[in-house]
Amino acid sequence: MTLHPKITIGLPVYNNAEFLRQMLDSILDQDWQDFIVVVSDDCSTDETETICREYEARDDRIQYSRNEKNLGSLKNHQRVLDLAESEYFMFARGHEILPPTLLGCAMQVLTQQHDVVLACAPTRWVNEKGLVLEDKFLSLFDTRGCEVITRSLLALWSKCEAFYGLGKTQDFRSVRVLAPFVGTDLIMILEMSIKGCIAVLPCGDRLRRYYYSENYQDRIRRHRTDMVDNAGFFDKYFPVARLPLEILRSVWRSDIGISRKTAITFLVLVSAPIKYTISRGKAL
Known about the structure:
Blueprint: E1 7-13, H1 17-28, E2 35-41, H2 48-58, E3 62-66, H3 73-83, E4 88-91, H4 102-112, E5 116-120, E6 123-126, H5 148-157, E7 167-168, H6 169-174, H7 184-195, E8 197-200, E9 206-209, H8 216-227, H9 233-237, H10 242-252, H11 258-279
Parallel strand pairs: 1-2, 1-4, 2-3, 5-8, 6-9
Antiparallel strand pairs: 4-7
């Protein structure tokens, strides 16, 4: 294992045994090999631990640890970020498959285009057999060349798959990545978009497993349970209401100037009710 790897891939897992081998294989098959994988197992009850230890024994770039108690999704994500010591960092999921040129392509963009803060692969939904679901889409916007107001608007309207892009570890730690409210991934992408551009790479598709059979309200209930289980009355009973306020907080604490902050605030106030109306009641 490289003593000072360039990239840390943070892989929080919980009961991911069904697809975990495919995920780990897709990491180990990357064209860029200077990385470590920090795996944090949140007390899985299936074969996740056995699989992780098998891969750890096979390749010393994989570092597996198991939490003493279940931390929940947010804290488990935070743990892998806290453990990163490399210059670059990327979150991953235990049921996805990465394209083999993702890391190499991302590193080329990040080291040559200094206005890029996140580099990610286009993402497609696949079923349990790995077949692409042609009727379901995950919109991602390449914002290179866009001014900060445009970048912010596109962040608000995109799906949040750029959360799983590669970027500098210091940038991940300088934004609110894992705040305890519904929509924290959107906040991270917005704050990254204020800092710089998001690059969507020509490296092939990242395949994300589709296992949802829920509409918007089901999803909000799931997020509320996962993220704000110990929150106060407001977050428990009005989980979505906080998000526009947190978006505005992100905008107004930035250093982009009053005129830009005012313009983005207007766009947020117009976009938020429209997006909520469009999303409400729909399946993922």
